[in-house]
Amino acid sequence: MKRQCIFFTLILIPLFLIALPHTVPSTSNTRMSTKRDGVRSWQLMMLYNQAMFGRLWNYYYYPPINTIYPDSVISYPFNTWGPYYSTVFTYDANHEYVQEVICNYVIPGQSIEPKFQMSLIYNDDHHLTDYTFRTFNTGMMQFLVTEEWHYFYSGQILTSYLYITYNPNPNYYKGTYQYDDLGRETDETTQWSSDSTNWHDDTAIHTTYHQSDTTTADMFADDLAHGKTFSLIFHTPISNAKYLEIRETSIDIYDYRLYWHSIYSYDTQNRISLNNEEAWNLSEMSWDLHLSRIYYYDDSNNVQQVYNQNFTMPNVDWSEYYLWELSTDNEDPSVPTPSTLVITAYPNPFQQNVGLNISSKSNQPIKVDIFNLKGQLVYSATAQSNTNLIWNAEKASSGMYIIRAMQGTQTQTRKIIRVK
After folding, report:
1. What angle do CA 282, 277, 56 make, to 5 degrees?
2. Which end of the chain has less Cβ packing within 10 Å, N or C?
3. How many other β-carbons are positioned within 10 Å of the β-carbon of residue 251?
4. Rounded to two decimals, what is the model's pTM?
5. What b/e readout covers 150-188, taking b as 16+ CB neighbours within 10 angstroms?
6. Per-residue pLDDT reduced to its tens digit, 44-60
């Protein structure tokens, strides 16, 4: 089950959010560094040194005053071809617990479009109870639910969860937690169902801890409350725990086998120095090393480099280099806001007729123009928001055209292609 959840949250989402980092630098294991407290903004530059990952990004974190969590994160590529992302966080009144996150896909010089929305609900003890992940559907012009998490407690102790995915039909997973005498979460067992009624055993996950670990069950719940959203954005768990090993095993009576385990090593300062990911080889009845991560730190105990050695694909090793600097006024970009003016064209490419829908939250009229690549106006109309228009391009030649929608001070463009 955990591997399936990781697939949805750490693989599918990163395919869209390629601009976000894979490792969270920290001063205390995996928490984000607090050195930016009270500053206006700071930036992280990250470079992948392999050709297939060969991109350099610049990340701007906008922190609130006296907390360790950002108001927003903006990522910029150090090239001209790529888009960037603007991720905006909304907090509670104490600016401590995230209530909503919206990630916007930004095409330089063209548009800002909403991509994902994450909503979180907490109980009176500030424990996370409900987490909903939505993806923006440009055809329907609204966010659609793709994942749900529901968490259940006994007092202060997180006891179980229900996880639902929609693809498009729902699939259900539920898990239960057990704790050791020190109050640390040690075992997670999961089941799955296609109808939420008939349940089947899935996996068992056992965790062992480093001797210096001091986490408790309440800290486990607190890490979830503070870190659920950040674990998706930054592709790593947000936790104070010091793990030695995490091992997943199938408990399906028809498919009993070991799946994978993750082994951690620490340096003399109790910082993670090595993390090996291994998968069970059923034919050889042994563990195969798939990925090894070696961590290097700077003088402030922030991660400076992570060397990733891949044992499943030849010549696909890579390093992540982190350079932490405070941003200046000149470097500091403005935080883009999502456009309320969105153009939808269908079908695209089209043969003769193309349908246009121009959506906006404003009641102002929208001017819609279509130009060919010579800059000649071939179609013009004025419409209200959510009005459907049709352009009959029977007399137009094949090729690319530009739709331009203008409403007040807002302008959006979109490319369409006519084929014969």
Report:
1. 135
2. C
3. 16
4. 0.66
5. bbeeeeebbbebebbbeeeeeebbbbebebeeeebbeeb
6. 555 554 444 445 556 66
